[in-house]
Write a structure and sequence with these properties.
By secondary structure, this protein is of the alpha+beta class. It is built from 4 helices and 9 strands; from the N terminus they run E-E-E-E-E-H-E-H-H-H-E-E-E. It has helices spanning 79-92, 133-142, 145-152, 156-163, and strands at residues 7-15, 18-25, 36-41, 52-60, 63-71, 118-124, 203-209, 215-222, 234-240. Helix 2 (133-142) runs antiparallel to helix 3.
Length: 248
């Protein structure tokens, strides 16, 4: 999707290999507060920062927003480590600093996501399908929506969201696309190396809203035509209700 000349870059933040950019329609930039950014490193010993999170926050009219991108611990079976990455992120991401906390009487000092009206969190969370490769290959061969639902029964993140043990209060749109990892670069073949990793939904977009029905999912999908990585990018369109601001 090409944004075109009517959009401008509101803020761009990076930490190591993590990058987060927020664009806004040019005529609406005057209704934004000061923009703040912060980051968290979850792999301290690494010289190149590949694991962690970057956050950008601001108020638009009377509604506060937090955007977070993350890269959690990789590898099958490392649910505990990924859960620790999540916990460190919500406890350590220092936002907001100057802009008002729109929920200061109910916010949790140990959870950055409790301080904003709307939160969008996305990235390579690295949660895997906890089953043998052959099972997923068989389900994918039929290419039916019912089998996609069967695949998600093995998804670690889906289980954790249902349990409420990570991303508390967050929701995810219905997944109607095949696993986005791990592909051979340049083609539609899942990992054909000697490791033959099980295809998984490592790349996700989730959201959290303080006021019921303020966020409406329009479309959640993946970009199967982009084959320059072993991941397929994911995207989601939302309609978000904006509340009026207060004049000082």
């Amino acid at each position: 999707m090409i944004l075109g000349p009517y959009f401008v870059l509101l803020c761009s933040a990076s930490h190591g290999v993590l990058q987060l950019s927020v664009f806004i329609r040019r005529d609406l930039i005057w209704f934004c507060s000061e923009v703040e950014q912060a980051y968290v490193t979850t792999r301290i010993i690494s010289q190149v920062k590949t694991k962690g999170a970057v956050g950008i926050s601001f108020t638009f009219f009377g509604t506060s927003f937090l955007f977070i991108t993350s890269h959690f611990t990789s590898g099958p079976g490392k649910v505990f480590e990924r859960t620790l990455d999540y916990t460190k992120t919500i406890e350590s991401l220092g936002l907001p600093r100057i802009i008002p906390n729109t929920n200061k009487y109910r916010s949790n000092p140990n959870d950055v996501t409790s301080r904003f009206d709307n939160v969008f969190w996305f990235g390579d969370f690295n949660f895997r399908l906890d089953v043998k490769r052959a099972v997923i290959d068989e389900l994918l061969d039929s290419n039916s929506q019912d089998n996609l639902c069967s695949i998600l029964h093995y998804d670690e993140l889906t289980r954790k969201l249902q349990e409420g043990s990570v991303f508390k209060g967050f929701k995810e749109a219905e997944i109607c696309f095949p696993p986005t990892y791990k592909f051979d670069v340049g083609c539609d073949v899942y990992d054909s190396s000697s490791k033959k990793r099980t295809p998984s939904y490592t790349d996700r977009i989730i959201y959290k809203n303080r006021h019921k029905d303020d966020i409406l999912v329009v479309k959640y999908g993946s970009c199967s035509s982009i084959k320059t990585s072993d991941h397929r990018p994911v995207y989601c369109f939302y309609q978000v209700k904006i509340r009026p601001g207060k004049d000082k």
